[in-house]
Amino acid sequence: MRKIWLVVKREYLARVRTRSFIIGTVAFPLFMIGIVALPAILLRHQSAHTLKIVILDQTGRMAARIEQGLDQKLPGGEPAYQVLKAVQAANDEEEQRLRNDLRDQVNQGKLDGFLVIPKDVMEGDSATFHTRNPGDLELARAIRSAMSEAVAVPAEESALARRAARGGSSL
Model pTM? Predict the structure, then answer.
């Protein structure tokens, strides 16, 4: 049994003394720390400048509500988001032209993104946000939150109107 133990000890020490084992022993924990810390650092990263956004609102009534929902401030007190304009296309052809124009502005760096709100958003159709930096989780969260609030308001108003029409209390 003693001879087996000596062989195991020698094999173990031979493996532990290799360069790859020593590098792996140091590198693997550093790699794991990086995997955990990098997303946390990226989530805390906030833009240092006001992000410029355009809203292509096909409903004609959601842009103002969304703009109100984008009221966050930067650490210096400036607004985090600025809605430069809200536009509405008269037809599908004009909408496609506006999308292409806005996409070009995003690619040129004149805009940070644009939000397209379809006509049927209240019936469950999804809005889409186009940006150069799809990894900006804070921006995506802010847009999603503002959209949810904007869609919830008309739903509450219509529920109150139906209740009032039936003669029920609106409280």
Answer: 0.64
Contacts of 170 (CB under 8 A, 6+ apart): 160, 163, 164
How far apart are the C-alpha atoms of 14 and 34, rounded to whole Å? 30
Please give the DSSP secondary-structure letter assigned to residue 107: H
For the record, the structure tokens of 79 come out as 């607004």
Closest among 117, 139, 154, 143 to 47, alpha carbons compared: 139
- Interval 29-52: pLDDT, tens: 999 999 988 877 766 666 678 889
Question: 99-134, pLDDT tens digit by residue?
Answer: 999 999 999 989 989 999 888 877 777 888 888 877
Rounded CA gap, 92 and 151, in Å? 23
What torsion do the CA atoms of 159, 162, 168, 171 make, to the nearest 10 degrees?
Answer: 30
Which has the closest alpha carbon to 52: 22, 26, 81, 21?
A: 81
